[in-house]
UniProtKB/TrEMBL annotation:
Domain Integrase core as annotated: residue spans: 106-276
InterPro entries: Integrase_dom_put (IPR058913)
Source organism (scientific name): Favolaschia claudopus
Lineage: Eukaryota, Fungi, Dikarya, Basidiomycota, Agaricomycotina
Superkingdom of origin: Eukaryota
Pfam families: rva_4 (PF24764)
Protein name: Integrase core domain-containing protein
Region (Disordered): 405-434
Coiled-coil parts of chain: none
Length: 434
């Protein structure tokens, strides 16, 4: 397995550090005191609204600033951008799930293929909780996608009633794992695939909504940074050597940024939505205490030994797809990085570090690109003789239920739910606002 030896710790500016060192009562927010953090955050997240900015300031800088203050701050500092955010409209689609781990939905994202980067998302739609959001140099290898599923299920100690995705051979490994595990633990499911292909039943709505959120609130600044190198001729995704240097630097850096995004997303509530029929609150809290929301955790407990068995069969850790860069290249690039005194990789320094490494790597009189594009695809066949899901797809209260229960619980009345549902609002949120 390739060793990532990058310095990936976040270092705030001196102004930010000085301010965050003060006690809470000393941090009287004014336009002047908030401005350094605002400018720093805008470099990474140019479209963040007031609620998300509250979350970022609190979690990344240790600073408490009210949403009311930030709304006025935005009116004073960036009135045009504020008007643009207010004018944004969303296309709404209703989705219903019976409870926590009723299902896991996942989907790939191809918008960054021009960089050779392939994000992949999996979530629990009931809680709205992201289970994984990973970025790698491919998303077409079923062993890789299966590893995302297995690792996420290991973390929670079990599997959902069903898994769900668009049709595609890259998802066959997950479908097989989910089916084998469920059938071993419940023989009555023998002969039935425990995965739903959404191309047959409708859109894979929840992951698409997740990608929309990610595209709006995470990617703009990072796309600008990455596009800069492409447009200036610094990086050609089809050039093997440039591709390897880029992925060695970009993937660990971006994964760190994505992990921080996921942490904020899961630990803070979205803006309240009157059209939503699923519970509204903090995803981590909904997952941890589903009884407060009138449901239960439908997770099927799986032993570590069974996970190990499934992993060895469908996503063996020694497969080449899990290697960031070929070993011969990794050895050379780590030596070059060490010789450069291990420069920090951030949104400000990425292309400078990339160019410094590339300038030295091209001087190496050795082929470092052998096997650079191996393991992009490694087909897996679906388990033969399995029928489509017998359960799910039943209309309930006017909504189509696509989960794994034969008899889903009745849908709560919207008015009743709004009165009885516990409200757990943190003093920082990751929902976007004007």
């Amino acid at each position: 397995m390739t060793s990532w030896r990058l310095i990936l710790t976040y270092e705030p500016t001196q102004a930010a550090q000085d301010f965050s060192d003060r006690g809470t009562r000393q941090r009287a927010a004014t336009t002047d005191t908030v401005m350094p953090f605002f400018l720093e955050i805008r470099e990474r997240f140019p479209t963040k609204g007031a609620r998300a900015m509250v979350s970022l300031l609190r979690q990344d800088y240790g600073i408490k600033v009210s949403e009311k203050f930030l709304n006025q701050f935005f009116k004073d500092v960036e009135p045009e951008a504020l008007r643009n955010r207010v004018a944004k409209k969303f296309k709404r689609k209703r989705f219903w799930s019976a409870g926590v781990m009723d299902m896991i939905c996942f989907d790939q994202h191809d918008k960054w293929k021009r960089f050779g980067l392939w994000p992949h998302l999996g979530l629990d739609p009931y809680a709205g909780r992201i289970l994984w959001l990973n970025i790698w140099w491919t998303n077409r290898n079923p062993k890789l996608i299966t590893s995302y599923y297995i690792n996420a299920c290991r973390r929670v100690g079990g599997v959902p009633l069903i898994s769900q995705s668009d049709a595609g051979s890259e998802n066959y490994g997950v479908a097989n794992c989910q089916t084998v595990i469920r059938q071993q633990l419940d023989p009555s499911l023998e002969g039935t695939l425990q995965h739903r292909w959404m191309s047959k039943d409708g859109l894979n709505v929840k992951p698409e909504a997740g990608w929309s959120y990610w595209r709006r609130w995470f990617t703009p600044a990072f796309e600008t940074i990455l596009d800069q190198g492409v447009h200036e001729g610094l990086y050609n995704v089809e050039n093997p050597l440039e591709n390897l240097v880029f992925r060695w630097l970009a993937i660990p850096w971006l994964q760190r940024e994505i992990d921080a995004f996921v942490r904020r997303f899961n630990s803070t509530p979205r803006r309240r939505d009157k059209n939503k029929i699923l519970p509204q609150g903090i995803p981590d809290l909904i997952t941890a205490k589903p009884h407060l929301y009138g449901t239960e955790d439908y997770k099927v407990i799986v032993s570590p030994a069974l996970f190990d068995e499934i992993e060895q069969q469908w996503a063996p850790p020694d497969d080449p797809v899990f290697v960031l860069t070929p070993p011969v290249f990794t050895q050379k690039v780590e030596a070059v990085y060490e010789a450069l005194d291990r420069p920090e990789v951030t949104h400000r320094t990425f292309w400078n570090v990339y160019c410094a490494i590339l300038d030295r790597i091209v001087q190496v009189d050795e082929d470092l690109t052998m096997g650079w594009d191996e393991a992009q695809e490694a087909p897996i066949e679906l388990i033969p003789g399995q029928e489509e899901l017998r359960q799910g797809g039943n209309p309930v209260a006017g909504y189509t239920y696509l989960g794994g229960l034969a008899v889903p619980p009745p849908l709560a009345d919207d008015d009743e739910q709004s009165e009885s549902e516990p409200q757990h609002f943190a003093d920082l949120t990751d929902a976007e606002s004007s």
